[in-house]
UniProtKB/TrEMBL annotation:
Organism the protein comes from: Croceicoccus marinus
Full protein name: Cytochrome b561 bacterial/Ni-hydrogenase domain-containing protein
Residues annotated as transmembrane: 12-34, 46-65, 100-122, 152-173, 201-220
Any one GO molecular function term: heme binding
GO CC terms, sorted: plasma membrane
Amino acid sequence: MGRDNVIGRVKLWDLPVRICHWGFVLLIPAMWWTAENHEMGWHTRLGLLLLALVVFRILWGFVGSSTARFGGFLRGPGAVLRYFGSLRGSHVPVVGHNPAGGWSVIALLGAMVLQLGMGLFAGDPYDGATGPLNDLVGVMTADTLTEWHESFFWVLVALIALHVLAIVLYRAVRRDNLVGPMITGSRAMGGDARGMAAVPAWRALACLLLAFAFAGWIWAGAPPF
């Protein structure tokens, strides 16, 4: 991109999206460490914090800023193929997630939902390490979910590795830094690119309250209303 075409810094990501992103980066390794070192109390607490963060991100995907919304970046197979084809030519960065990156986000969120869901029911009450919803299932079901929870973690790790590999390749091949904008929230772009459309801050607060209320309800064992 020539210097004459740069119109300045364009807003790409709002603060909630960036907090969620870096929260995932910190929490997932921390949860692995706590499990490996038998710190199951902290593992459960961090898991509930991750659950709140995932729920918030899902809610924000419907009511958040334009680049945060699922409807703003989810595209069909044709759009994904056209995007990959554009990488061979004069590729122009997009504002927000590209068609391929959008599905990567959905895959990661979906994997985290599955991993968290299994963890909520997993554990053995005889060794004191159980998820908050363990009492709602039988021993055999809990044992099965515990095994799946331990194995599926590596599926999540594989998806994260692919995500990181894509970032590295973009940097190496396209000279496109995807990490910087996720820190600062903006980047320099050319042409007639327009930044994200923001939404009122009260929406983020409402999503945050709902997410933590849900996590608190789960922590309490999901009692009936």
